[in-house]
Specification:
single chain; mainly alpha; 9 helices; 74% helix; globular
Length: 194
């Protein structure tokens, strides 16, 4: 895929996840996590490029690392801008976003929560690829209810809050590690003849 197309689809994915994150900030639990799932449903069915939906398939799909990094950059930059725009459209989102950001920290538990989100994202996208959206419809509420950390949702929340937090880097690394590890332990092994 050409770089402009790759970037355009990364911006598209960020917009869809921003819609989900903003409804989560607006409504909270228990309704928000279920409506958030529309973001990933849209990403998958419309063929957009979401870092957390792609990184677990880095090896199996032979995604060039520069392409994955461009997807990440597009998701992060567009996600922050969309979050900021949503805060202008609805300033009532800002306190919820600020409260959420204040709870984040650069710590091992935060990294583990990001890894677990990576696990959920890989399984959700894999099940979609196998023909069912159930992984998305159950997986997205699962990771939100459990407090797992999704780097693209987090950057959108940062945009709404009008801030930056270094925990975003921890979330990116954790999502990547969790997704790739899940691919590694669940992949089909080549059969060897006896």
């Amino acid at each position: 895929m050409k770089k402009p197309e790759l970037l355009r689809k990364s911006v598209g994915a960020a917009l869809l996840i921003a819609l989900g994150d903003c409804v989560l900030l607006k409504l909270g639990q228990p309704i928000g996590p279920f409506l958030f799932a529309l973001g990933l449903v849209g990403v998958c069915y419309l063929g957009q490029n979401l870092f957390t939906g792609k990184c677990g398939f880095l090896i199996s799909d032979r995604i060039p690392l520069p392409d994955l990094l461009l997807i990440l950059a597009g998701n992060l930059a567009a996600g922050w801008v969309f979050g900021w725009l949503f805060s202008l459209a609805d300033p009532s989102l800002i306190p919820a976003a600020q409260e959420k950001v204040a709870s984040w920290e650069c710590s091992l538990p935060f990294f583990i929560k990001a890894c677990l989100c990576g696990v959920v994202m890989y399984v959700a996208v894999l099940l979609y690829r196998k023909g069912t959206p159930l992984g998305i419809l159950f997986g997205i509420p699962l990771f939100i209810f459990c407090g797992f950390q999704h780097c693209i949702a987090n950057v959108i929340t940062l945009g709404v809050a009008g801030s930056f937090d270094w925990s975003l880097l921890i979330a990116v690394l954790g999502n990547f590690a969790g997704s790739l590890f899940t691919w590694w332990i669940t992949r089909d092994q080549p059969k060897t003849e006896k």
